[in-house]
User: What shape does this take?
Amino acid sequence: VDPLDWCPNGQTWTVAALLPSWLLYPLTCGAIAAVEKRAGSAGLGMLAALLWLCSFGPELFLFWRQGGHLSNEQGIWSYVWPPAQLADFALGCVCAALARRQRAQLPTSQPSSPNSVTSRASGSSIDGEAMSPACQQQ
Assistant: This one.
């Protein structure tokens, strides 16, 4: 898929760009859970740094190598090309796992569980762990 053939329908592009990430989500969560179980928050932090480097490293290298300039085509390849979104999506998943760990360490005097969302309008509660069982803490 050539990213220079820009689709004028941004919604279609969004789905096309995120579809590989959505399909790989169970594997991504499994890998994140394994890192979290083995190395805790430090491991998740290192994984986040590695994913950030995978996502932005090539652009930063080109920017430095070309004297502080990126061409429009290079910018498009780094953003519009759907596989370029994989590292960004995985980085978001790692940051969510880090936030969940931080939230779980809060004092238990909070009115709701660390992974629940309560709707003010209906008063109903949704358990966050039930929504994504692949990412439950082991």
